[in-house]
Amino acid sequence: MQSTTFPLKLAVGSAVVVTYPASIRSEAVPDSSRRYVLHPTPTPIPELPPEEHPVWARLIAGQVSHDFSYAAAGMLVFNMNLQWKRDPSKLPLLIKQIRTFFQKYLHLLGGDVQKLFS
Q1: In what helix (H) or strand (E) does residue 94 lie, and over which residues does it extend?
Q2: Model confidence over 89-98: pLDDT tens digits?
């Protein structure tokens, strides 16, 4: 049986030599690059409004009711509403936090953004 030797470096200053039988090395690897085709998203992701947009404040104050497609967004809005009721002076900070959340998860919340800000 023919063998092939490959050096394998594990850490600085140490090395191990691994020997594989030729039969393992000669097996063809299937080309899977053509099986999966990426298609563009049918709906474009909307642009997120700036912090000054009045819907952010109304959303935190509970004046806008929306059933979010992403449960974490609904929980965040509920939590921020409670924080705002305890201390209304936190509104600018809360708006910044919720907008950051929406920016991070815009790929999941795109439909919600279109409904809220249109």
Answers
A1: helix 91-104
A2: 999 999 999 9
